[in-house]
């Protein structure tokens, strides 16, 4: 959501000061109704804003995919550590992009950023059941009992209950894990609950979206088609 006066000034209609007079004059409509209060909040993707009858475009919706390297915290600011924001090209940093969900400092892999609050919410909410797939190197070897325990919904060492998840052993010390929620250190804690302590973790996909061959540390912007896929994410996964 964005304030009407911010949307109008960002779109170059007039300065914030001039806008007061413009709004009072009744020159601005939102979804066909005259709005005179610049503090009104709206959704630029859904609401139709017009100035003297001409459509005013809101900020472009942006979704970036980063192949996060280890050593960066998922945060916009941090007093000690380097943050994932340092990996985003300067031109994007002014666009109010925020990370969608979180990867631990030592975790690598797919991390999305967006200026679309609604999309961020959908991707994070466990209610939407968006599948996040991870590749892990760990101590020990996962077996059938571990697979069943994941499928039944694990209880972590502190008593936290997890939603059913998929564990796919890939051989000695390697597994693929698919979860639909994002609790703190979730995959590491799930694996530890089975004595399979994680040594390396990488997120490979989120819903239909895969890291594929994006090099480590690189960022790319998603196309409109890919964003639509993200919005429909819970209709068909991986
Ligand atoms: N689970 C974890 O334990 N760490 C992550 O970074 C992501 C999922």
Features:
Structural Genomics Hypothetical 15.5 Kd Protein In mrcA-pckA Intergenic Region, Chain A; Alpha-Beta Plaits; alpha+beta; 7 helices; elongated; 238 residues; binds uracil; 3 domains
Strand portion, in percent?
25-35%
- SS-based class: alpha+beta
Instruction: Indicate the low-confidence ranges by residue numbers.
Output: 234-238
Q: Write down the overall mean pLDDT.
A: 91
CATH architecture of the largest domain, please? 2-Layer Sandwich
Gap between N and C termini: 30 Å
> Mind telling me the CATH class of the largest domain?
Alpha Beta
The total strand number stands at 15
Largest sheet: 9 strands, mixed
Count the domains: 3
Oligomer: single chain
- Here the CATH topology of the largest domain equals Alpha-Beta Plaits
Helix content: 10-25%
Topology:
Layout: E1 2-3, H1 4-10, H2 16-24, E2 28-30, E3 33-34, E4 41-42, E5 49-51, E6 54-55, E7 63-68, H3 90-93, E8 98-100, E9 108-114, H4 117-124, E10 132-138, H5 144-152, E11 166-171, E12 174-179, H6 186-193, E13 198-206, E14 209-210, E15 219-221, H7 224-231
Parallel strand pairs: 9-13
Antiparallel strand pairs: 1-4, 2-3, 2-5, 5-6, 7-9, 7-15, 8-9, 10-12, 10-13, 11-12, 13-14
Structure in words:
With 238 residues, the protein is an alpha+beta fold. The chain has 3 domains: 2-55, RNA-binding S4 domain (Structural Genomics Hypothetical 15.5 Kd Protein In mrcA-pckA Intergenic Region, Chain A); 60-128 and 212-238, 2-Layer Sandwich (Alpha-Beta Plaits); 131-206, Alpha-Beta Plaits. Helices cover 22% and strands 26% of the residues. It contains 7 helices and 15 strands. The chain has helices at 4-10, 16-24, 90-93, 117-124, 144-152, 186-193, 224-231; strands at 2-3, 28-30, 33-34, 41-42, 49-51, 54-55, 63-68, 98-100, 108-114, 132-138, 166-171, 174-179, 198-206, 209-210, 219-221. The strands form 3 sheets. Strands 7, 8, 9, 10, 11, 12, 13, 14 and 15 form a 9-stranded mixed sheet that branches. The chain has a 4-stranded antiparallel sheet with strand order 3-2-5-6, with no helix packed on it. A hairpin with a 7-residue loop joins β8 (98-100) and β9. It is elongated and about 70 Å long. The two termini are 30 Å apart. 27% of the residues are buried. Mean pLDDT is 91; it is low at 234-238. Uracil binds at residues 103-104, 107, 185-188, 201.
């Amino acid at each position: 959501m964005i304030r009407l006066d911010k949307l109008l000034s960002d779109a170059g209609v007039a300065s914030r000061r001039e806008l007061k007079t413009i709004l009072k004059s009744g020159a601005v409509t939102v979804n066909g109704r005259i709005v005179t209060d610049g503090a009104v909040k709206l959704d630029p993707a859904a609401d139709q804003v017009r100035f003297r009858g001409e459509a005013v475009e809101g900020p472009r919706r942006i979704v970036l995919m980063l192949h996060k390297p280890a050593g960066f915290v998922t945060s916009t600011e941090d007093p000690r550590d380097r943050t994932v924001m340092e990996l985003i090209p300067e031109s994007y940093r002014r666009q109010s992009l925020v990370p969608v969900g979180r990867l631990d400092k030592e975790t690598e892999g797919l991390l999305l950023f967006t200026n679309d609050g609604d999309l961020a919410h959908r991707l994070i909410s466990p209610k939407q059941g968006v599948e996040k797939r991870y590749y892990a190197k760990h101590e020990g070897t996962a077996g059938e009992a571990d697979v069943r325990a994941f499928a039944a919904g694990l209880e972590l060492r502190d008593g936290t209950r997890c939603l059913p998840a998929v564990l796919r052993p890939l051989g000695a010390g390697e597994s693929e894990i698919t979860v639909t929620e994002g609790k703190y250190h979730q995959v590491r804690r799930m694996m530890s609950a089975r004595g399979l302590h994680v040594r390396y973790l990488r997120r490979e996909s989120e819903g239909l979206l895969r890291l594929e061959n994006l090099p480590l540390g690189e960022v790319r912007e998603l196309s409109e088609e890919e964003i639509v896929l993200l919005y429909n994410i819970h209709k068909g996964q991986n």
